Amino acid sequence: MISAPDLVETFPFPFAADSYRYSTNVEPAGSSVHTPAGRWGERVVDIDSEYENELTERADILAADPSRYAVLPHMRPACWDTMVTLMREMASAYPETMSLERNGQVWRWRNDRLGITQEFVFGDDASLPAEPLAFIASQVQEDIVLLDQRDGDLFGDAGVVTFAADWSFGFDVGMTFLEIHGPVPRLRESGVITRAREFLMRLQPGETYRRTNWSMTIGRRLDVSTERYHEWGPDRTTIQTVSDDEIGRRVHLRVEVQHLIRLPASGSICFLIRTYMLPLVDLASYEPWRVRTAAVLAELPDDMADYKGIIAYRDRVVSWLQNAG
Asked: Which Pfam families match (predicted)?
C-alpha cells in the first residue's frame, strides 16, 4: 500500500481557481504538474504499488459482469492500435520491467511485473492469449474507451471500463459523444461539450492530451458503476450518521486523470481514465489542500453537487474540513 505522505506527494489535486466550473480543462500530456505538495503527470500510463491489486480487481469484475468489456466489430483495428500504443508507452516509462521489440512481422512484449512474455503478429488474434483490447486492459490500471470518428461525430464503440464513477459503459456502448455526456448538468448550455467534441475531432495522429475530473467516494471503492449502485448507493446516506473520525477516514476525494490519444494507425481516439483516491484525513494533512477543497465544495452549485452524488453529505464534509485544521 502507498503511505500517506506518498499519496499526498503524487496525488493529482484538481482544484485550481474556479475549478468547480465545467471547462474543457485540456492540456498537452507528458509534462510534470507541480503542486506545493509534490508533482505528478510525467507518464501517460501510470503504474504504482496498487498495480497488481487493481488488476486482480478488474479481472474479478469482468468475470462477474462481462458487459464491462465491449468491442463493436468495426473497432478491431483500433483495439490492435491501442494495444501497441500502450505497450510503447509502458516500455518507454518503465524500461527496467517492460519492453516492446519488433523483428519483421513478429513483435515481442515483456512485462516482468506480471511475468508476461508474449510474441504476436499485429492483427492476428490467434497470436495472443486474449483479444488485443482485453490483453492490454489486463496490464494497465486505466479504464479504456475507444471513440470512432465518422459521419461528423464521435461514437463510444469499444472499451474496458471496470472502475466507472456512477455510469455504465455497457449502457453507453455505441452512443455518440454528446449522448454519453447528456446527464451532465450545464454542459450543453455552456457549449463546453460541443467545444470538447470539436477539439477531439481535430486531434492529429499521435497527439496526446490530458484533463482531470473529480468526485467523491465513500470508502476506497474503485467500482462505483451504476450496475452496483445497490452496494454503494446507501453509503451516501449512512455516512451522515458516523463520527468525525470516520468521516475523515471513509470519505475520499476521487480524481480521474484522463488521457486522450489519437491512435496513429486506426485514427480512433483512445480515452484513458485513471482513478486516484485520497481519504480526507490525508488530504487535510496538507493545509492548502484542506482549505481549497472546503471552499470548492461550499461554493459548488446544487445541481453539480447532485450530479456528483455528494449533495446528501456535502455540508458534513465541508464542516469536517473547516474544523480539521
From this structure: HODM_asu-like
What cell numbers appear for 65 in the block? Answer: 459482469
Beta bridge partners of 103: 106
Say if CB 100 and CB 87 are below 8 A apart. Answer: yes
113 a catalytic residue:
no
Yes or no: say if 79 and 72 are a contact pair by the CB < 8 Å rule.
no
261, pLDDT greater than 50: yes
One-letter identity of residue 235: D
Q: Over the stretch 16-43, which tens digit does the pLDDT of each residue have? A: 654 445 455 789 998 778 766 667 888 9
Residue whose C-alpha is closest to residue 206's, from 26, 29, 42, 32: 29
pLDDT the model gives residue 2: 43
Distance CA 264, CA 204 (A): 8
| Lowest mean pLDDT, pick from 75-89, 177-191, 298-312 | 177-191
- Contacts with 69 (C-beta within 8 Å, 6 or more apart), sequence order: 62, 133, 134, 137, 159, 160
pLDDT at residue 68 above 50? yes
Cell numbers that stand for 135 in this block: 490483453
What are the extents of the domains in the chain?
Answer: 5-323
Spot the catalytic one: 211, 221, 228, 316: 211
Residue in 248, 262, 281 with CA at minimum distance from that of residue 207: 262
Q: Per-residue pLDDT for 183 more than 90? A: no
Within 73-131, where are the H helices?
Answer: 76-93
The stretches of 251-286 forming alpha helices (DSSP H) are 280-283
